[in-house]
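Sanity check. The docking grid for coenzyme A depends on where the pocket ends up, so I'm generating a full predicted complex first rather than guessing from homology. Inputs follow.
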Amino acid sequence: MAMKTLETERLILCGWKPEDVNDLYEYAKDPDVGSIAGWAPHASIEESMNVLRSYIENDNAWAIELKENRKVIGIIKIYPDNNHGRYHAMMINYALSAAYWGDGYMTETVKRVMQYAFDELSIDLLTVFHYPQNIRSRRVIEKCGFEYDGTIEQGCIRYMTDIFLILFVIPYLKKTG
Ligand SMILES: CC(C)(COP(=O)(O)OP(=O)(O)OC[C@H]1O[C@@H](n2cnc3c(N)ncnc32)[C@H](O)[C@@H]1OP(=O)(O)O)[C@@H](O)C(=O)NCCC(=O)NCCS
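Predicted complex below; grid placement will be based on this.
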């Protein structure tokens, strides 16, 4: 689906384009990026192209671009979360090229998408989870004002090298008003 372009101080969040494939592959082949988020590093540029096509065709996924040079440095997605009864809830997840970690980029991105989701999609709850060992993501979540909701044991299967592990998932949610 066509994504509404969003802007922050340093970033442009926009729909994915086929020509973004090199930037996607550059960060997605790095095992440090995907494995802590539950997905395998991309093994080839063809794999990245298939993933990119699915972003365009199936997902509410924005490419995170640096304003200064329009390089794509990450992704943020938002999708329905049907686990919250009468609340209109959506979940986000995200990943950033390791070369850009620790500079506040993802906090800046998540805050903008939160604003969009509450103001323009009129959701009631925004949820997010991280694996327990993912301290960086936890900090992003805390800095964006999410509240701890609970821990789900054996909630998700996580990719790590070639072994699938059952781990804990921690969902967060935030109510409007
Ligand atoms: C999680 C991720 C998106 C964070 O992006 P980022 O732009 O580096 O995040 P920010 O710079 O906004 O914030 C990172 C915070 O983690 C802190 N941090 C970084 N390394 C840390 C460490 N080893 N221990 C504790 N805190 C750490 C930073 O200091 C910063 O907090 P601060 O602002 O209080 O100093 C990025 O690391 C990433 O893409 N990781 C791989 C994919 C992933 O984990 N996705 C999320 C799945 S839930």
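Relevant for the grid: The first strand starts at residue 6 and ends at 7.
Also worth noting: Strands lie at 6-7, 11-15, 61-66, 72-80, 89-96, 125-130, 147-148, 152-160, 163-175.
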